[in-house]
Amino acid sequence: MKKKTTNCLQYAIWIDLQKAVIACKDEEGKVSTESVLSEIDTRVRFEGEGSNKNRLFGATLNQEKHAQNKLQQQRKAFLKSVVGKMSKVESVIILGPADTKYELHKEMEKKKSFSSVPVQVKSADKMKIHEIKAVLNPAPPPRSIARMPRTK
What we know:
The protein is an alpha/beta fold. It is built from 3 helices and 7 strands.
């Protein structure tokens, strides 16, 4: 599969365990978005499941440890896929409601190409695509109009 080449320089990423929305702004000021869905199984249930322990040779094994390891591996793969979508980065703003945004920041620090890139991490609840785009294109501050004194 060919990697999509983009000329994006600024990125705004809203990330959660279910999906990530990546908005990027190119040199011309055009903003484009891309969604990345995660394949993380947060709640795995089996039909007829009564206990989360297995019995093996008279000892009980707890499946919770295995489930946590699997969740951590899936989370790392998701974060690597999000980082892999970015190239030619000048600045990054990471938004999100949970700790996933901090994990993405740590994953970005591991790559040498992102070592000199300024990264901002901000907390944000659910955001729509136009709100994420607005982070890259902030509205100009309102101009204050100086009032002329009234003359009689």
